[in-house]
């Protein structure tokens, strides 16, 4: 039994377009990406389930001619999950539009601070390249020159 090649290509295209749209900064594009991936998953379940058969009712049809009901149940579950995620993303996009006037995902302030700190550490004298890119013990406890707090210790507390 071979899967229909056209459906396999459709699944690949849906996944590729969905992943591409998930990487965008606009929530509406992310929403369309989630919907495309959800449809790709549903199509993949149906392709993987094999050829169509008779209704899976014991006594009415021969067991060898019945279709497998599990992939159909998985598709129904995936539809419900996709609907819930779609509703959540629509609510987030609408709220972002109300607050900011656009639905662009903004950079996190903490992520930007960590990125700047990592760039400074690579050019500092305390950056230990031989240890896989970690800081050595001498420069770990020193506060930064720009007023940022000192590095976090191994147990999570500040020195």
From TrEMBL:
GO annotation, cellular component aspect: plasma membrane
Top-level division of the source organism's lineage: Bacteria
Alphabetically ordered keywords of this record: Cell membrane, Membrane, Transmembrane, Transmembrane helix
Biased composition, class Acidic residues, residue ranges: 135-145
Ranges for region Disordered: 116-159
Xref: Gene3D superfamilies: 1.10.287.3510
Subcellular compartments: Cell membrane
Biased composition (Low complexity): 146-159
Bilayer topology annotation: Multi-pass membrane protein
Bilayer-spanning residue ranges: 6-23, 30-53, 73-94
Keyword flag Protein biosynthesis: no
PANTHER family in the cross-refs: ANTIPORTER SUBUNIT MNHC2-RELATED
The family this protein is said to belong to: Belongs to the CPA3 antiporters (TC 2.A.63) subunit C family.
UniProt xrefs under NCBIfam families: PRK07946.1
The protein's name: Multisubunit sodium/proton antiporter, MrpC subunit
